[in-house]
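Hi U.,

Before I forget, here's the chain from the pilot set. I'm dumping it here mostly so it's searchable later in email.
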Amino acid sequence: MRAVAISQPGPADVLQIAERPVPAFKTGELLIKVHAAGINRPDVLQRLGKYAPPAGASDLPGLEVAGEIVDGDFTGTAFRKGDLVCALVQGGGYAEYCAAPAGQCLPLPKGLTALEGASLPENFFTVWSNVFDRCALADGETLLVQGGTSGIGVAAIQLAAALGHRVFATAGSDEKARACEALGAERGINYRTEDFVAVVKELTDGKGVDVILDMVGGDYLPREIDCLADDGRIGLIAVQGGSKATLDLGQVLRRRLSVSGSTLRPRPVAFKAAIASHLRTTVWPLIEAGKIKPVIYQTFPLEKASEAHALMEASTHVGKIMLQVA
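Structure:
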């Protein structure tokens, strides 16, 4: 099969088309003929040599795919050969075939193309795990999304808004801030020209927000502490702004604040399968009803994965960057 391999750690052009054997599926796995795959920040970090795949995972990049089941271990599943699915995987998505744990596969939502379906798993698994499980965003609570026009940001805004929450989001330009609002955010905040703490405090009558989804870290953390309501929670999923921060622990104590961090890729199949179950019952109906829509910025053929990575690193996109495989 054709696949995109990382020839050596480095810039985008180290991604090269290679011939690889079709992966053998293991117990509990399904073999998918990949129609489309999503591009994600962890793929870029892996290419740079900063994020090694978990033990036993494919060395090929790619954390989400959609396509047709062509073989596999169907024991205990409702899936059959020929079913169209999208799946979260630990690696190997940039290829014509990919093996995925059955528990991490979901039926392709009705009305969506495989390209649209492949844009869903990494973002919605991440958002559900962090915003709704770890940070327990509850009815009537507010959410601030840092990086609202990223793939994860787009998913978080749409999902929280569809479930009735007030959502605020930061972005790097006025145009992107307005894009956040079009997706369902009550207010998009241009972090280059506005103080998100002041804006959020004004919009919440000084209370602050209940949950913050943060992919920045660094010097954002102390500002986010100031931005939280009492009993507020921060869900940290990346440290694009740096891994070191100074926090006012007095505020954390007095106001019962929580800072929680997590990564999804190395978690066990059972953990991810539980998230998939929540997505199937709560999120997939919203997608099929058109209340949440895939947002695809640009699509590249498999052999131009390096151009897709370059676009990801330029950070000019709104929504997902995708690979069309078949």
